[in-house]
Amino acid sequence: MARTRAARPAPAPAAQAHVGGPARHALVLPVVMLLAVLPFAGAVNHDFLNWDDQVAIVQNHQLLAPGVLRWAFTTTLLEHHQPMAWLAWAAVARAAGVVPWAFHAVSLAGHAVNAALVYLLAIQLRPAARTGWQAARSEEHTSELQSRFGISY
Questions:
Q1: pLDDT tens for residues 70-85?
Q2: Among 46, 29, 53, 30, which Cα is nearest to 105's?
Q3: How far is CA 36 from the centre of its chain?
Q4: pTM for the complete prediction?
């Protein structure tokens, strides 16, 4: 008696792999952001640190100087190149002054945005990972049945 190969179900399309859809993610995203910020929220009430904050921010008059754009891209202060950080700190200093709460609040906002980006990236990677896992699981299950019942194709 000839045995026929059973048809395997096709993997779910990527659109179906998103559990709950955009509405669910719109509800989860603020929670993810809040969870990223909540442990550090108390930092807003603290002073600058004694590591490099004095040199980089408090005593750095270049942040408020007229040529900050050129300075940010050419300075060797603190011996590393970080023009976007200098420009961000200059924007905070100009908007709120050189006060710790403003710099800490911007840092918290950055953490929230990064948590949101990681969440959104995970959503995009999940369908591919899920489809790959389902395919591997299907192959594993088929191999197990083949060995257990002596089925060969």
A1: 999 999 999 989 999 9
A2: 46
A3: 10
A4: 0.68
